[in-house]
Amino acid sequence: MERHPDDWYRRNAYTYWQESQEAAADFMHCEQEDLVFVENTTTGINTVLKCCPYKPGDILMYTTLTFRPVAYTCQATADLFKGVQFFEMEIEFPISSEDEICEKYEDFFKSNPNTKIAIIDAITSPSAVVMPLKRLVDLCHRYGVMAVVDGAHAVGTLPVNLTELGADVFTVSTGMLMAQAVSTKWLFTPRGCGMLYVKREHHTWVHPLVTCWCHGLSLDKQFFQVATRDQTPFTTSPNMHLNSYQRIGGMDKIIGYASSLATEAHEYILKKLKAEPLQIPL
Ligand SMILES: Cc1ncc(COP(=O)(O)O)c(C=O)c1O
Questions:
Q1: 39 in ligand 1 pocket by Cβ < 6 Å?
Q2: Is 147 part of any domain?
Q3: I need a labelling partner for 175 at 20 to 30 A (CA). Which of 57, 111, 125, 212 fits?
């Protein structure tokens, strides 16, 4: 891009974007056209929530375990659209089973039939609870609710098959972040790289938050050309980084190694701090 900007912008960037998109779609098992690059999960969530066609009375729901900026995005969206409300559903510890979580969501939908969007955390933060994703997505659809999955930590740590999952929206950050000395976001792309999956039936209303030259074109083209945004994290890296993810052994090997390490660390920290484990089903 720096050496020959004209070549980059006019000829090459879109080819690289498509190659990365193809590799990422292959990794997450979805159609290439349904997956675009965005800076991060927060941008993905903001994009979808702030574009959605609402009617007065619609409800955006999230839980007490939802990542706070995502909760704030629901609140800010409700402020933007007249008559739209947000609700925070309480999930308390101890959590005895997946059934308990599903029942809470179902009770909420039964008593709030105007729920338009439910935020589903794939892995909550900072509590690190792996949610029963597929069951919650199916439940949303049974009650006519749009399932918007915050997959921030999921890709690279859990097998993700977006076609089987059937969520309306799934968004993830892939750029590594070191927060409080803990590494999160697991595909190790450069920072400023994330992905947004949008089910085909929603393509007509999802647009980048920054309107630009490709307004009105396909989802893929609109998200490719967002003004002079730096495209390098999207266009070159996901492909490269997915290759190295596979080269070091792929999902099974990485999870196998990381899980035993996590169990060992868990036991060590509990002992050192004389603490109780989080009351969740393991
Ligand atoms: C569960 C969860 N959702 C969303 C995010 C936001 O990710 P980003 O800051 O990359 O947009 C995070 C960040 O750590 C997170 O833990």
A1: no
A2: yes
A3: 212
pTM above 0.85, yes or no: yes
Residue 232 lies in a domain: yes
31: CATH? 3.40.640.10
75 contact partners, CB below 8 Å, separation of at least 6:
86
User: 11 C-alpha to center of ligand 1: Å?
Assistant: 33
Residues of the chain scoring pLDDT < 70: 176-184, 282
The tens digit of pLDDT for each residue in 179-227 reads 444 556 777 788 888 999 999 999 999 999 999 999 999 999 999 988 8
> Is 174 inside a domain boundary?
yes
Pocket test for ligand 1, best of 153, 176, 196 (most atoms within 8 A of CB): 153
The reply to whether ligand 1 has any atom less than 6 angstroms from the CB of 170 is: no
Is there a domain that residue 217 lies in?
Answer: yes
Q: Pick from 42, 130, 172, 195 the residue to mutate for probing ligand 1's pocket: most ligand atoms within 8 Å of its CB.
A: 42
Helical residues (DSSP H) of the chain, grouped into ranges: 5-7, 13-28, 41-51, 68-80, 98-111, 133-142, 162-165, 219-224, 232-235, 237-247, 250-273
